[in-house]
Amino acid sequence: MGASSSTEQVSVEQREAESLAASTGALPMLQKAFASLADPQTNTIPLHSLQQCFSLTFENPTSEATAMPPNFEGLLSNVGSSMVGVFFVAEKGGVSWIEFLRGYVKCCGRTSASASFNTLFRVFAMAVVKAGLPEKLQFDSYDADCKMSGFLVPADALMLLWLCYIMAWNSKDLESFGEKGDRHGLPDLRHLVLSAVSWSGEVGSDFNPWDFDILGTNVQLPAAKILMWALKTVPSLPDCFMQYVHGSIEKSFRSEKMQPSCSAVPDCSPGVECHNNLLNQGRAWAISLTLRSTLHGEMMKACFPSYGGGTNESLVYRSSLHGKGLNRFWSNVEGYNGPMLILVAASLGDVHDDNGNVRRWILGVLTHQAFENRDTFYGSSGSLYALSPVFNVFPSSGKEKNFVYSHLHPKGGVYDPHPKPVGVAFGGSVGNERIFIDEDFAKVTVRHHAADKTYQPGSLFPNQGFLPVEALILDVEVWGLAGKTAKDVQTSYKKREQLFTEQRRKVDLKTFGNWEDAPEKMMMDMVSDPHRVQREDR
To answer: pTM for this structure?
Structure first.
């Protein structure tokens, strides 16, 4: 099985390799996998068996938003052999127990963030070469912390992101892959590719993200800048590779042997209306790459209904469904105690593309607390997102805590000479908010980051200037990220509030006694005929 017995002499190399594997918590799983994959005669894993274990196929990949880059399917078919060639050293007859452990630690062991990205890039670079595509990335050594040079073009960046997306979903539900008869297209990841392009600084001032041709542009994105962009914008991207390696090895010793993973992208059929959401697959996955907490899993559920139970139960509010306005918004978010993701689609209204379509952009806000009706800012943490057409994330700066502002009209009609703004805002200060949504949900005002010390600086939409911009709101969505428990608590809260409202509407006539003796009747009689003679009882 690869594990030594108590009577055997254990070498120092084996003890060290097992210690490193045990630090990842995967040593028992690796022992079972080695026993399942190894040849009993040689006690090594044949190369073809290990390549088969990591093989990844995707039949006829398609995407509605972007055409398939050439040889992308061939790249996927060479991922397994590339992984084995980069990380697993073959000896006579195959991969020994010690080299199997070392290879796993190279892929999934604890290491620095830059080394994790180098691991991912090395697999991608070798798969590209084996697929017959030009070699664009070079590495000065085989170490994890080696220096990477070269460049990628936008089409390469798209293939890398799609590869990570397939690996990520493949590792979520391995038993279902290969069993689903239908296949679904890959998500639109243009916003991530355009983010890398704009970060590289290799495009001019005339860069137009709405009309940018990813496959037809050969602008070179330097490897060093790609790495810096990935570390800042999508720090969890290497987790897709590590999860895929771990899941593939775990699958190898299951009782029901399955064929190589034939990925089926999560169901996004019209029945679940995933494609109609502002939070589509591509945007939700991009946001999940910025998270490392439990919110990552909840974001995956919000993006992929089939992963979360088959329905969009995480959707709390949508203006096109529940109605526009602060009151409609409040009636749907009130009682939800947990993190929420707010998305706002807006347009300047007079900016159109070549086909006459309105060029919209989408903002996102991640809050970690419930909404409160207050005339001051509140909150403990959060992040701003530019989601479309270019993706960017602006987490907390740590300087101020003006994360959320949500203020309804005060009750009672008391005159206030200095009324506070009525609406929803994020960042900045009262009256000078970075993002402000009016009470009708008709307009959103976006100010320059100089007005905000709560979130990190950056443009929330293309060509944002220094002056405030007032845009027309097209749609607003709110997604709950606290799981089913928070949704159930909110449902109970709403039922209780509805019960109280119905009770207040009911009038118990018995509490009023006899109407003839009621003072209200005497007052009404006096108003109707003030000169009427009233008999006084003595």
So the answer is: 0.86
Residue 206 CA to residue 212 CA, distance in Å, equals 11
241 and 177 Cβ atoms separated by less than 8 Å: no
Question: Do 252 and 36 meet the contact criterion of CB atoms below 8 Å apart?
Answer: yes
pLDDT at 286: 94
Range scoring the smallest mean pLDDT among 3-17, 142-156, 359-373: 3-17
Task: Count, in order, helices (H) and strands (E) of the chain.
Answer: 18, 15
Task: Label residue 411 exposed, middle or buried (CB < 10 Å: 0-12, 13-18, 19+).
Answer: exposed
- Of the candidates 166, 164, 75, 80, which has an alpha carbon nearest to the alpha carbon of residue 125? 75
- Asked whether 397 and 453 are in contact (CB, 8 A), the reply is yes
Q: How far apart are CA 80 and CA 245, in angstroms?
A: 10
In 217-342, where does DSSP find H-type helix? Answer: 223-233, 237-251, 281-288, 295-303, 305-308, 319-322, 326-333
Indicate the SS3 state at residue 412: coil
- Is residue 242 within 8 A of residue 24, CB to CB? The reply is no
Residue 476 — very low, low, confident or very high, per pLDDT cuts 50/70/90?
A: very high
Q: Which residues pair with 425 in a beta bridge?
A: 405, 436
Give the span between the Cα atoms of 125 and 111, in whole angstroms. 20
Mean pLDDT, residues 323-341: 92
Residue 140 CB-density burial (10 A; 0-12 exposed, 13-18 middle, 19+ buried): exposed
Percent of the residues in the chain that have a pLDDT greater than 70, as a whole number: 83
Measured CA to CA, the distance from residue 430 to residue 286 in angstroms comes to 31
Residues 264-323 pLDDT 10s: 454 444 334 455 789 988 999 999 999 877 788 788 776 565 555 545 678 899 999 999
pLDDT value for 357:
61
Q: Report the mean per-residue pLDDT for the chain.
A: 84
- 156-to-101, 153, 451 alpha-carbon distances in Å: 31, 5, 37
Report whether 426 contacts 434 (CB < 8 A): yes
pLDDT-derived band at 98 (thresholds 50, 70, 90) equals very high
Between 19 and 532, name the one with better pLDDT: 19
Q: Could you count the other beta carbons within 10 Å of the beta carbon of residue 223?
A: 20
Rounded alpha-carbon distances, angstroms, from residue 177 to 241, 259, 297, 367: 17, 9, 19, 34
Contact yes or no for 430/333 (Cβ under 8 A): no
Q: Comparing C-alpha atoms, which of 48, 20, 16, 50 is closest to residue 33?
A: 50
In the chain the first and final C-alpha atoms are separated, in Å, by 108
At 92, list the tokens: 């006579």
Please choose, from the candidates 483, 534, 492, 530, the residue with its C-alpha nearest in 3D space to the C-alpha of residue 299.
483
Alpha carbons 208 and 188: distance in angstroms, whole number: 18
The pairing of strands 56-57 and 261-262 is parallel
